[in-house]
Every structure is written in structure tokens, then in C-alpha cells.
Amino acid sequence: EAGVAQSPRYKIIEKRQSVAFWCNPISGHATLYWYQQILGQGPKLLIQFQNNGVVDDSQLPKDRFSAERLKGVDSTLKIQPAKLEDSAVYLCASSRETGEGYTFGSGTRLTVV
Amino acid sequence: DQQVKQNSPSLSVQEGRISILNCDYTNSMFDYFLWYKKYPAEGPTFLISISSIKDKNEDGRFTVFLNKSAKHLSLHIVPSQPGDSAVYFCAASEGGGSQGNLIFGKGTKLSVKP
């Protein structure tokens, strides 16, 4: 079973620029999550999709972050404009309707300078 | 306000000995707890979980203990191996499983010395 694919692996941008991350979950996984992990912290949920609908986006800074999951498969997370404090690893994860735990991708490390 | 706390940022253990990683939580609505292991430059990988209806779950060298009255759980690794060296995250959720928002602790870096 292929894992959760994310790209790019690394991205460096200047503040106020925009950036987008891509995630391809495990085939058949209905639920997709985007987490933000700041250095020294645990991952924090940004948004959760069930198929192509948003289940929870209560912690997504909607003034600058947006995410979509077209056709209930791939997902993109966008930041516009980026701030220095957005420097973090952005993790995508997916899970089945039932089962234990998520499967995480390797993440995208974003550095905002 | 941290709902899931891992108060030890790091732990060093000799190979073959027991590693005990601790986690405390404050939200009494949490009913499902998980441990994830993370190597550098990789995403966290699921290790073991426990439902609040149990007080112990075992999988090979890994055992998780849950003390609901103390709002405390621990992960025991016996015997510890150098390949276990990683950051371990404790996570918790409401609603009985992986469908919910996982709240993570800050992690404990385990170093197992040969």
C-alpha cells in the first residue's frame, strides 16, 4: 500500500509571498487532515476533510490559509500571504472510515524568511 | 492551555533496559489515546493506541498503560533497542477513534545507547 504523498519536501519563501502544498492520501482513505508542526511542538490540526467536505477548520487561520480537496482525493493547502511564524512542517494525514490512527506523509518543511 | 502534556523533553536509556515515556492530559472527555513515533525528516508513524475502556494494551515490546483517575498514560518499551531512538508523541481524541481531531503533546526524544 502506497503511503501518503506530499510535495514539495522543502520550501523557502520570503514573507508576504504565497505558497501551496500538495497531498495525495492513501487510496480509499475518506478522511484527510492537514497538521502544522512548529519546531519543538506537537502537530496541531489545521483542517479535516471527509471526502471533499470540511469537517473541522476551526483552527485554520482563514485570513491567510485556505485548503481544498477536489473530488475527495488530492488536497492542496495554500498560505497567502506568508508570515515568519508560518515556518513549520506541514503534515498531511489520512485515515479510513474505521481503523486506528492516521497515516502521515513525510511533510513539507516551510521556511519563511 | 496544553491539553496533552509530555513533561520530559528527552530520555536516555541503555540498550536492553526499559524505556518509560509519560503523558498527562487535562480533558476528561478524551477517550482514545495514541502514541506516535517520529524519525527526523519523516512523518509520525502510529505505534500503539488504547481506548479509555481499557487500562492496558500490549503489542510486542510496546505496552501502553492508562490511569484514567490520574489522567495519565505511559508507554513502556522492553527491551529498548537503538532503533527505538526517535521522538515519541502522545496524542488524544474524543469520540472513540481516529476520526477526530488528535491533540498532540510536544514529544519526548528517546535515545537508546548501545
Features:
heterodimer, A: 113 residues, mainly beta, 7-stranded mixed β-sheet, 4-stranded antiparallel β-sheet, B: 114 residues, 6-stranded mixed β-sheet, 5-stranded antiparallel β-sheet
Give a verbal description of the structure.
Chain A has 113 residues and is mostly beta strands. Chain A is built from no helices and eleven strands. The radius of gyration of chain A is 13 Å and the shape is globular. With 114 residues, chain B is mostly beta strands. In chain B, 0% of the residues lie in helices and 53% in strands. Chain B contains no helices and eleven strands. The chains are: A mainly beta (113), B mainly beta (114). Chains A and B meet through strand 5, strand 9 and strand 10 of A and strand 5 of B.
Strand content of chain B: over 45%
Number of distinct beta strands of chain A: 11
List the uncertain runs of chain A.
Answer: none
In whole angstroms, how far apart are the ends of chain A?
Answer: 37 Å
For the residues shown, what is the average pLDDT of chain B?
A: 93
User: Could you describe the largest sheet of chain B, including whether it forms a barrel?
Assistant: 6 strands, mixed
Topology pattern of chain B, helix = H, strand = E:
EEEEEEEEEEE
Oligomer: heterodimer
What is the β-strand count of chain B? 11
> Quick one: biggest sheet of chain A?
7 strands, mixed
What global shape of chain A is seen?
globular
- Distance between termini of chain B? 38 Å
SS-derived structural category of chain A: mainly beta
Alpha-beta classification of chain B: mainly beta
- Secondary structure: helix percent of chain B: under 10%
Largest interface (C-beta under 8 Å): A-B, 24 and 21 residues
How many individual helices of chain A?
0
Rg of chain A (CA only): 13 Å
Shape of chain B: globular
What's the SSE pattern of chain A? Answer: EEEEEEEEEEE
**Rg result of chain B:** 13 Å
